[in-house]
Amino acid sequence: MGDVPEPEQSPHPTRSRAHILLAALGRTAPALSLSQTDCAALAPLLAEWPLLRKRLTDKIPPEPVRPPARPPLRILECAKCGVPGRPEALPGGLCGACRGERAPGSPSTPLSPSEVRSRVSEIRGAMNERRERTPA
Q: Using CB atoms within 10 A of its CB, is residue 69 exposed (0-12), middle (13-18) or buried (19+)?
């Protein structure tokens, strides 16, 4: 058989897991960035220190329980008068009033002051009735 050539040694020795861990600290916490010299000096100390490994393997906290994500509530404003509304209520960026539409059931003429007072009294009465029926 023939001579089997031995694999060539790389010019740079392989780095230990401790060295790689120390070098990676700077990516997650920039204040902990270490030079190659610092990593080489601290790697033996880290390899001898079993507490970190024990902590990471035995005492990992459970994943946090997160509530299901809700879609964001989107409220826009009329581009002309600034009244808030849902996107579907503001086609073209304008509310119904600015587009010249009237709300269904709205009077065609403004109410007189006495009609306003009468409606307010009806609403207050209905609110008081509801409050009395609702258990505390």
A: exposed
User: Which pLDDT tens digit goes with each residue over 18-64?
Assistant: 888 888 888 888 888 888 898 888 888 776 666 566 666 777 777 78
Domain range spanning residue 38? 17-49
- Alpha carbon separation from 75 to 86, 93, 98 (Å, rounded): 5, 12, 17
Query: Count of domains in the chain?
Result: 2
Task: Please indicate, yes or no, if residue 40 is contained in any of the structural domains.
Answer: yes
Smallest CA-to-CA distance from 35 within 19, 17, 15 is with 19
Per-residue pLDDT of 5-27, as tens digits, reads 555 555 666 888 888 888 888 88
Global pTM?
0.30
Q: Say if residues 89 and 96 touch (Cβ distance below 8 Å).
A: yes
Answer left, alpha or beta for residue 25, where phi above 0 means left and psi between -120 and 50 means alpha: alpha
Query: Rounded to whole angstroms, what are the CA distances from 131 to 124, 127, 135, 136?
Result: 10, 6, 8, 9
Chain center to CA of 36:
37
Residue 87 in any domain: the answer is yes
Residue 121 belongs to some domain of the structure: no
